[in-house]
Design goal:
By secondary structure, the protein is mostly helical. The chain contains 16 helices and two strands. It starts with a helix and ends in a 9-residue tail after the last helix.
């Protein structure tokens, strides 16, 4: 499918002009200024991602899937450029500040914006060296056939991405990652809230008990994997020894494809519970006791007091923990998987997206495919996080 760069520029210019024209028209300002500004922004966004690729996705020998991916890149580029410019233009036309200062005292702000620039130079330098440059290099590698240690790299356009759609094994890995992450987050947070509620009770030695509960979080995922390997080893582990003697049941915790993922889930839940318990105990300490006492006086039982008083006031803590636990479940379970089920488990039953990235990049030396799959994983986590902020963030209650 051949698409001329000129056509992409024109389409982007029309979309950008329409967007900025609409913003200027609503503000009652000069429409002729918004139209050319939007056209330039939209045209630049249309070629932002496809121009560095040499418009390879629209070459004649490319498949339809490559062309679709190219159009998605064009749409993403237009949105990435036009939307921020529209937002900034709209606020400036309405004479609104670009930075909200309602929650900040005027004593902590700069009189001139350029004074802050020299102070930001060290931070921006560190971000450029250790965040922006590696990110740009990952994007470049994702379009290459690159082997670790090889002298040459060959451009493969977007094959590292489009081939994933046609790979049933990778689609299975995505599904496995989602369901394992779901149970890790739900079980970890549910059990942590239950334990934190009990640990918050006025008991003798409660402070020591709380410290012991937080200790597992101080351990690395590798140590958690070793501990659970000693416990759940199918041949000589403690769990099978006890279950075999007491109930006559022995499970293949690490060599059964149906059971192995649950072993990883249990180990990950145990590893992350300390972090959740710590924050839930801190959240419970901020719940006003007079509200709970008022609920008790009105005849509300323990469950109703918790559901209608404590739980809404814990919503900021819960929302924060959901985001952090999702990040942990997607990114930080590699070491636990590698120690418990080396190679991704029997029949790849514990291979997650993160584990697959490290397999390709470190063990198979395929940097191009590893970079592409790391970007897919990153975009998936960013998408889930945005969904959480757009949905769950509205249910968060700050204050009484």
């Amino acid at each position: 499918m051949i698409v001329s760069p000129v056509i992409l520029l024109l389409v982007g210019a029309v979309i950008g002009a329409a967007a900025l024209g609409y913003v200027f028209r609503r503000a009652g300002r000069w429409l002729l200024l918004g139209l050319p500004l939007g056209a330039v922004a939209g045209g630049f966004g249309a070629i932002l991602f496809v121009a560095p690729l040499g418009y390879c996705t629209f070459e004649t020998e490319r498949e339809q899937l490559d062309a679709i991916f190219g159009f998605l890149l064009v749409a993403a580029g237009i949105a990435l450029v036009v939307l921020p410019i529209s937002w900034v233009a709209g606020r400036l036309l309405r004479h609104e500040s670009l930075v909200s200062t309602t929650s900040q005292p005027t004593q902590g702000t700069f009189k001139h914006w350029w004074i802050a620039l020299p102070l930001l130079v060290p931070t921006l330098t560190i971000l450029a060296l250790f965040l922006y440059y590696p990110s740009a290099e990952t994007l470049r590698l994702s379009t290459m056939l690159s082997r670790l240690g090889a002298r040459r790299e060959v451009s493969v356009c977007v094959d590292n991405f489009t081939r994933l759609v046609e790979d049933p094994e990778y689609l299975d890995i995505i599904g496995r990652t989602l369901y394992m992450s779901f149970f890790i987050v739900v079980l970890s947070m549910g059990l942590s809230l239950l334990i934190a509620t009990m640990a918050y009770l006025p008991l003798r030695g409660a402070s020591i008990y709380r410290i012991l509960l937080v200790w597992p979080y101080a351990m690395s995922p590798a140590v958690a994997g070793i501990i659970f390997l000693l416990m759940f080893n199918p041949s000589g582990g403690m769990v099978n020894y006890l279950s075999g003697n007491w109930f006559g049941i022995k499970l293949g915790w690490l060599n059964d494809p149906k059971v192995a993922p649950w072993t990883i889930i249990l180990a990950s839940v145990w590893k992350s519970m300390g972090f959740n318990i710590l924050f839930y105990i801190a959240g419970l300490q901020n719940v006003p006791k007079d509200l709970i006492e008022a609920g008790a006086i009105d005849g509300a039982g323990v469950v109703r007091r918790f559901w209608h008083i404590v739980w809404p006031l814990l919503s900021p803590t819960t929302f924060f923990l959901i985001v952090t636990n999702v990040t942990y479940a997607f990114f930080e379970t590699y070491a636990t998987i590698d120690y418990l089920t080396p190679g991704g488990g029997p029949l790849q039953s514990t291979t997650t997206m993160m584990y697959r990235v490290i397999q390709l990049g470190v063990y198979n030396n395929d940097m191009g495919k590893a970079a592409a799959q790391s970007i897919v994983l990153f975009m998936m986590v960013i998408g889930l996080t945005l969904v959480l902020f757009r949905t769950g963030g509205r249910q968060v209650t700050y204050g009484v």
